[in-house]
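Saturday, quiet lab. Running sequence design on the structure tokens for the scaffold JK sent over.
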């Protein structure tokens, strides 16, 4: 018998899903209400019904190479309509977290970031590295005079330091995503062959930037606006950071005037992120546990994201207020959390953006998301 048809239950995997937030998994009795109520699920091989039974059976390999766990956007439609309170949205979220740990490179980083109890240690690592950078350039003390952050930590060594780690993080994220792509190819039904990465790329990118799938959610329509604001706020701040580096080192244009378009974009992006994150927090705290359970990984990522924004605002305010005794320590904290957000990308909730995009590309490239359209035309 071919390995493709062997059932290889993994009880340990099932228990990990239950312990990671999918505590209601065993309540599912396969009525398929979840798949019917989900507006994102295709007509052919719909989710999340099959994912629920695979998780109950411990079919780890089938789930990890299943793009549908990422096509789910946790709208909560399925959890609200489930007659047994099985919360398929929570179960699929737990499977996604497991997938991030599984594909992480190196693996121990995925496991470390998966344990919220280790978050203080994971923040201590960049703190020690930045202290070492300060020691290496001989800047131990708080500079005298007006607040100028470059006097505390010069921009060039700081950008080399961050740039090197961020490039490494992106390379490792690509390694994990390529392993996921390989496993999705193995899961393709007979007769299905992916037409290539590029075929689905533009369509998937358009969907990511429009957040179009979030708009299809019925139960939690506000999820679209909060995620869109947070996403574009982050993109805007990323553009500003790159723009400042180009202005400083290519055009020798620094410091940038207060009312320069880059500064205005940075301000608007910060406001967008702050509103978006606050909206996400309010939505999560206001939801009944029966529809969505927020785990420690959810809150730790949201906390880091919010701390990045608040410390970024504080560094600007304290520079104008000229309070060096507070400004430089806050700036140091800001650098630590920015490091944690960007460099730990392949292992945190931030990795969801990578894997979901790759799953969308594969679904479009393999015709996965076109199946329901084809079947509808055939039956018409």
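Result came back. Writing it out in full:
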């Amino acid at each position: 018998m071919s390995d493709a048809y062997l059932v290889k239950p993994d009880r340990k995997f099932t228990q990990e899903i239950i312990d990671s937030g999918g505590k209601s998994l065993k309540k599912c009795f396969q009525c398929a209400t979840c798949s019917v109520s989900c507006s994102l699920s295709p007509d052919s091989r719909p989710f999340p019904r099959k994912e629920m039974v695979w998780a109950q059976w411990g079919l780890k390999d089938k789930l990890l190479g299943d793009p549908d766990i990422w096509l789910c956007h946790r709208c909560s439609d399925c959890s609200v309509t489930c007659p047994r309170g099985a919360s398929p949205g929570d179960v699929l979220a737990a499977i996604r977290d497991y997938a991030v740990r599984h594909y992480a490179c190196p693996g121990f980083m995925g496991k470390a970031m998966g344990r919220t109890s280790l978050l203080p240690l994971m923040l201590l690592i960049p703190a020690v590295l930045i202290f070492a950078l300060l020691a290496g350039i001989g800047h131990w003390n708080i500079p005298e005079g007006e607040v100028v952050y470059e006097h505390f930590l010069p921009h060039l060594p700081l950008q080399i330091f961050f740039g090197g780690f961020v490039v490494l993080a992106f390379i490792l994220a690509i390694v994990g995503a390529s392993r996921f792509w390989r496993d999705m190819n193995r899961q393709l039904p007979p007769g299905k062959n992916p037409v290539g990465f590029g075929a689905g790329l533009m369509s998937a990118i358009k969907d990511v930037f429009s957040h179009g799938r979030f708009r299809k959610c019925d139960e939690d329509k506000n999820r679209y606006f909060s995620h869109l604001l947070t996403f574009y706020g982050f993109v805007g701040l990323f553009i500003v950071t790159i723009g400042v580096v180009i202005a400083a080192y290519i055009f020798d244009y620094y410091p940038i005037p207060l009312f320069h378009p880059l500064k205005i974009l940075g301000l608007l992006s910060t406001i967008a992120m702050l509103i978006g994150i606050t909206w996400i927090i309010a939505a999560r705290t206001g939801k009944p546990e029966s529809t969505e359970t927020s785990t420690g990984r959810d809150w730790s990522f949201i906390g880091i994201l919010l701390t990045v924004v608040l410390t970024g605002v504080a560094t600007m305010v304290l520079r104008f207020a000229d309070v060096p005794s507070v400004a430089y320590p806050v700036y140091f904290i800001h650098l630590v959390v920015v490091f944690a957000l960007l460099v730990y990308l392949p292992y945190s909730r931030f990795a969801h953006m990578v894997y979901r995009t790759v799953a969308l590309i594969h679904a479009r490239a393999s015709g996965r998301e076109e199946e329901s359209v084809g079947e509808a035309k055939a039956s018409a």
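Notes for JK: The mean pLDDT is 88. The chain has two domains: 3-104, 107-368. Ask whether to fix the surface positions before the next round.
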